[in-house]
Amino acid sequence: MIKRTLKQVSEMIPVENEITSFAAIEITGVSIDSRKIENGNLFIPFKGENSDGHKYVEESLKKGASAALWQSDVPNPPVHLPILIVDDCLEALQELAREYRKQLPVKVVGITGSNGKTTTKDMTASLLSTTYKVQKTEGNYNNHIGLPLTVLGLDEDTEIAVLEMGMSGRGEIEFLTKLASPDAVVITNIGESHLLDLGSREGIAEAKLEILQGLKDGGLAVLHGDEPLLMERINKYKGNINVQTFGRSDSNDFFPTEIVQLQQGNRFKINKSSESFELPVLGTHNILNALAAMMIAHCFEVPFTKMNEGLKSVKLTNMRMELVEGFHGEKIINDAYNASPTSMMAAIELVSHLKGYEKIILVLGDMLELGPQEEQYHQQIGVGLNPDKIDLVFTFGKLAEHIAEGARSTLGKDRVFAYIDKNVLINELEQHVNDRTLILVKASRGMKLEEIVTALQKK
Fold first, then answer.
1. Per-residue confidence (pLDDT) for residue 193, from 0 to 100
2. Superfamily covering domain 104-312
């Protein structure tokens, strides 16, 4: 993590006060939460509508922080303490991260996409870690605050940083990529997330392609080659970049030549190697995420044998195709972190083809931020269900009622249940499970369907 004296920090960001008496003080890492202060931290207070972190500056220093920022429009700065007065604390955090990134010899991989970016980040870091010292975005630190914090948390001897870049609107990916200055980037796919803000899949594609604006000259761009919206635009791109593609079709640079779905993962081969790869992650769609990660590893000269080691040992962020067991012995696929029509259909396709279960149950919740056609998107999920593969459907939320409506047209009324009370859903669901049952739980993050998973695991 960043280790600099206050004099050095003042040379990286504009500081408005005299700091001579504090110049030699060294900061180690940064924190924006006074409750999580560690010794030596630079505390960065944010001024919000309902709370003001400046109230905790003195407390943070007492807890062990070496210094703190102070926003110039906040009155009564404690100038007797080691503080740096700046025009805007958030902008100072971002600028500090930008300057720190410039000072590091680290290579950076930037990853974005509508679906699968966190999984691809985890896979990429696992593959690269077989050969290099790697750090990656932790949790959901992928926005205008989280990414700067991740950069400032990089050790000076880290060789490759794998950074996830999220967004909700235009210009956000551009800001993040210009801050991180990646050597290679990945766009996993173009889905329907953020249609509410961006209006169309075309708009989403253009927003994701903003990641190229920070890519270093001659850098590698790894794209989903089966996505026309990406390929149409990349073919018109004028920058000096190396474009490589992955996908299912053999027109891509990397594509699978053989796929065997296993009970708890996949075995597959690709066109570039005779190696047989094992991926302990459910869902054939995750093979595409693995291909993107493998292309990055290949760029950094990781041999395929090492990649196989990295895939076998990959650990995904929680609530992404996570297989757990319920109290009654039922198997639960916890994919409750997020959802879009594309990712929900992929998850349903997965469970539809898993063998060895007497009963397959879907627990589906609202998919958020889909714009004016949100009801139609939900209904299409239900209409597309195969009554020979899916036994029961439970939905949670107002929008998910449209999934139930569509499902009744294919499965019949007796096999579909819609709820707006989570506890009632849980109680009814428990009446239908045994040790030969498989349950898929999926919805947008705001629906908190992991609470259903937790309830099923308890006595």
1. 62
2. Mur-like, catalytic domain (3.40.1190.10)
